[in-house]
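Aim 2 progress update. The chain analyzed this quarter is reproduced below.
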Amino acid sequence: MPEQRRRRFSMVLIATVLGVAATSALGTWQLNRAAQKLALEAALESREARPELPGTELANTAAAALPQHFRRTRLRGQWMAANTVYLDNRQMNDKPGFFVVTPLKLSGSDQAVAVQRGWVARNFVDRSALPAVVTPAGEVEITGLIAPPPSRLFEFAGAAPGPIRQNLDLVAYATEVGTPLKPMSILQSDSPEAKSAEAKPTATKPAADGLLRQWPRPALGIQKHYGYAFQWFALSALMVGLFVWFQLIRPRLRAASFNDTPNHD
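Predicted structure tokens:
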């Protein structure tokens, strides 16, 4: 029996050590992911604080566009209003509606860039109705943040193209527009004039063109990694605690209880 108990003890010890090592490694990995995303968040804030990037320096490839993401820029051009699309099921301030995207033909260039102009509520009675959005004619100047293309949502295969759609593929969109598009989008910000006006836009009051631009910061999920790390480390602690209780403390308590039992022979 002592030999069997020693063998069982050794097996449980090895399993516990392996389990603690694995869960501790996973917890450490989650902490490292959180640290990486904190560094990314700091980098994004640093980019946003840098001087505006001229429109002539916008990248022409997806790889070159990555370090430009979330830099501020100021662009001049003409809206290609006929190619405006309304991305459905997009939220701003927890309300569903459309993200309005219009290509801006850049002045002095044969290229355009897709501008996420803002959010507008949709008509839930007539779901095919397009909201009223003011699109100025002639040359305009806009400011905004360089960003990745609009995020993709789930959609069924074979979704019909049209002004109202679920997602926007820039390559296909460029063919549709008939003008090369930069491999990025622009999150348009309100003009300084709108911000300083008495009737400035708020979270519930749109700008003069009918659009809200309360763009949320990128969701990096840092707190999620801390939560996962806590769970893995808690599991490590639980395994250690169970091993100590069932393999060390409880056998000793049972042995002490047995030795203290009176002999009634």
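The chain has five helices and eight strands. The first strand starts at residue 53 and ends at 54. These observations will guide the mutagenesis experiments scheduled for the next reporting period.
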